[in-house]
Design a protein that fits this description.
Residues 20-166 form the N-acetyltransferase domain. With 285 residues, this protein is α+β, with helices and mostly antiparallel strands. It has helices spanning 7-18, 28-42, 53-61, 107-121, 136-145, 183-189, 199-204, 237-243, 245-264, and strands at residues 21-24, 65-71, 74-83, 90-98, 126-131, 149-154, 173-179, 208-213, 219-221, 228-232, 268-273, 277-281. A seven-stranded mixed sheet has the order 1-2-3-4-5-7-6, with helices on both faces. A five-stranded mixed sheet has the order 9-8-10-12-11. The longest helix has 20 residues, at 245-264.
Length: 285
Amino acid sequence: MSDLLTPASAADLAAGAAGVRIRLLTELADLDDVYRLFESIWHSGTAHAPVSREMLRAMSKAGNYVAGAYDGTGMVGACVGFFAAPERHEVHSHVAGVVPSARGRDVGRALKLHQRAWALGHGVTRISWTFDPLVGRNAYFNVMKLGADPAQYLPDFYGPMGDAINGDDDTDRLLLHWDLTAPYVDRAARGERRPGCDVRALRASGAVTALGRTPGNEPIPGSAQGRTVLIAVPDDIEALRKTDPACARRWRVAVREVLAPLIDDGARVRGFNRAGWYVLDRESR
């Protein structure tokens, strides 16, 4: 793929590969579809809905980002973001979701690249958002596919949500910074992945395991005293919350106790692999 690929072209290619069309939304009927799509994913009810139709209407009128992804069946994904303080030149991407029937097609990536092109067109150079650090597929997507950098650990950020995905778990989140003009983000937009996440090779070269995982999917505390640090997350935390909520809570506490202080002390997340391991480096990029 050409090094001259523009953000808009990268977004168009991603949408085509995902089999969707993405457009900005302002009409009430479309905004109602966004609300219903998010409700079909989170089942949060009106008390904890991430957005309402009325709020979406106000946000879009004020020039914020509200977009939907469509295929032949209708809306299959949506993303909502709002501007941060002017001096930060930043958009906070509040919520994004893709219906289960459209997952595995990189619809989410197409939405984020569309949002990136839109933001750059508005003079914005960074997008931030939060995600649950226990959800491995989201960690891989955010860090490896998009090139976003975890910047801060936020314990129980939203408080109780009680929806179908979060259950009764604490809503710890990682705050991400996506530096839209960074070379590694541009490479990610062209389909490249961050290297250096082979856990076996990293251990052989001196990486330490701050948190491991037993064959029974329990957390095992280790040592964080090293330059390169490995942290495991559970296999499928969302299923674990339903089948063994006590174990899910043990994972929440264990990851919080090792990941939060490392990030607070300046360690950088180098990557996340599909086997469910964060790779952190105490030295800057």
